[in-house]
């Protein structure tokens, strides 16, 4: 069989359009029309974030975007770092269509999980933890979670939180020391109209997939990076904000609830630290099962989570004798257990999360101090961490994250 000129044209045009879009977004960043980078290092991070979102968009639309044969793409992890991910959550997304019915099978290994709007505590499972969940627009008996009847997950791009996929699963791994099994998930279309086999790839279809990836890339790269700049423009520098059910920088957002209560309360610090400065955060503890403090770079990306202590959750945080947690954000190691390593004098974000609190929703406080004054800001019995102790903590962190991500 020969290659038709219309096929060459379709593929050439789709690829050129993608390269043109990538060049346009990067050019806007370099020219100062996107984001608010103030030096070469911040600009380099911005351009890198655009490249990462481009790679994510292409991979999703080429390999994870068939609603007839959906697959879960794990993202916002050690590979795709955009979007302000919580290091304690594994995020899975699949592209689904509202006219179809899907069956998810899996086992979360005893972890907390939400599948769409359905929480693990409401999922009936076998004795070994294996479960089945039906996903469809029409209500089904047993474990079921809805999708909109008009959903076109393979092409739709939401105006807020533009991302790959249309159906989300989150698995919460907040006990890094546990020996729980990794867990697994599978999904398949099961209604009578489901085809038996996927169609073979053809030129027009693949050109459409590239065009689809280009639309996703444009939306995601601009929205996520401009959101970060908008948050900085509307929040004080180096001051922690009170908890809110509205994510920072997101308009027209309806917070999800479970049993009439919000899933999540958020708060942030817009960081702008010098080498001799630090932020000391003090907080009472919420009464939910999980909470975390996480650092991000200028563009809502996870920094070096393997080699720096950039996040702490309730199982990893030292709690002082008075029942409070105290954190220090700084460029240099202050020798305290709850150090959040900014990676140098820089701007960025601290994002804290109170996950499904019952009654207690604490309001943390923060102070900007000189690095040499950190010790005086701590209780007299606050423990010290020397260099050997820090290396041991980071070595353990690398092993724990490898167990979670390298599967």
UniProtKB/TrEMBL annotation:
Domain DUF1214: 279-358
Pfam family, one: DUF1214
Gene3D superfamilies reported in the protein's UniProt record: 2.60.120.1600
Domain of life assignment: Bacteria
Protein name per the record: DUF1214 domain-containing protein
Organism listed in the record: Novosphingobium colocasiae
């Amino acid at each position: 069989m020969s290659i038709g000129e219309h096929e060459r044209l379709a593929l050439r045009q789709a690829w050129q359009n993608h390269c043109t879009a990538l060049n346009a977004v990067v050019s806007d960043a370099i020219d100062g029309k996107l984001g608010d980078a103030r030096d070469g290092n911040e600009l380099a991070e911005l351009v890198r974030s655009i490249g990462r979102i481009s790679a994510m968009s292409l991979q999703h639309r080429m390999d994870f975007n068939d609603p007839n044969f959906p697959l879960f793409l794990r993202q916002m992890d050690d590979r795709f770092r955009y979007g302000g991910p919580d290091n304690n959550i594994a995020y899975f997304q699949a592209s689904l269509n509202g006219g179809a019915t899907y069956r998810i099978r899996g086992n979360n290994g005893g972890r907390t999980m939400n599948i769409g709007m359905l929480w693990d505590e409401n999922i009936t499972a076998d004795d070994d933890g294996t479960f089945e969940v039906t996903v469809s627009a029409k209500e089904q008996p047993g474990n079921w979670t809805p999708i909109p009847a008009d959903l076109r997950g393979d092409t739709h791009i939401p105006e807020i939180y533009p991302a790959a996929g249309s159906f989300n699963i989150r698995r919460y791994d907040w006990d890094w020391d546990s020996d729980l099994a990794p867990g697994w998930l599978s999904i398949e279309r099961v209604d009578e109209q489901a085809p038996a086999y996927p169609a073979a790839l053809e030129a027009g279809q693949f050109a459409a997939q590239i065009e689809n990836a280009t639309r996703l890339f444009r939306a995601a790269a601009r929205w996520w990076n401009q959101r970060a700049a908008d948050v900085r423009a509307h929040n004080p520098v180096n001051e922690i904000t009170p908890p809110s059910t509205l994510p920072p920088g997101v308009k027209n957002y309806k917070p999800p609830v479970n049993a009439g209560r919000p899933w999540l309360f958020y708060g942030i610090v817009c960081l702008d630290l010098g080498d001799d400065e630090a932020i000391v955060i003090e907080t009472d503890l919420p009464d939910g099962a999980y909470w975390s403090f996480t650092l991000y770079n200028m563009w809502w990306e996870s920094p070096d989570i393997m080699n720096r202590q950039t996040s702490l959750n309730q199982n990893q945080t030292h709690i002082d004798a008075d029942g409070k947690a105290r954190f220090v954000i700084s460029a240099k190691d202050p020798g305290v257990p709850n150090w959040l390593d900014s990676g140098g004098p820089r701007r960025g974000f601290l994002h804290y999360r109170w996950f499904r609190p019952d009654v207690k929703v604490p309001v943390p406080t923060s102070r900007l101090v000189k690095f040499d004054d950190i010790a005086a800001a701590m209780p007299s019995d606050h423990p010290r961490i020397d260099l050997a102790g820090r290396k041991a903590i980071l070595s353990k962190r690398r092993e724990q994250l490898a167990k979670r991500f390298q599967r």
